[in-house]
Amino acid sequence: MEKMNVSPFMVIGIEVRTSNTNGQGVKDIGNLWNRFLGDDILSRIPNKIDNTVYCLYTEYEGDHTQQYTTVLGCKVENLETIPEGMVGKSFESGSYTKFTTRGNLSENLIANEWFKIWNMDLDRSYTVDFEVFGEKAHNPKDAEIDIFIGIK
Fold this sequence. Notes:
Blueprint: E1 2-6, E2 9-18, H1 24-38, H2 41-44, E3 53-58, E4 68-76, E5 87-91, E6 94-103, H3 109-118, E7 128-133, E8 143-151
Antiparallel strand pairs: 1-6, 2-4, 2-5, 3-4, 3-7, 6-8, 7-8
């Protein structure tokens, strides 16, 4: 766990509105990933800064037990061109707590880390939280994922 500030950034990608009730978020986000990979969304995102994939959680109706939007995409230089079927979002700078999890992605690696985070006493802002899938995430059996939780 490490506290840090994150500069403003913009993302283009695809989104879904979901909640964590009855495992709906896991299902919806899994489907979003399938669409992202199956439709080769990564190659269709204009003005990418790099190929790092971000999974963002934003537009919370309250806390993590209520509805929120998940965006799967990449950081971009600008939001001037947003392809049909995609969304562009900009996020303000903020304070974050960074968590890093390592292991096999097929063994609920990320979900297990989120269960720990939900049970921690963090002063969360519920503006945007995100996971970073960089080069260290390329090997699904031995991935390293950073999770950033917005704090007040």
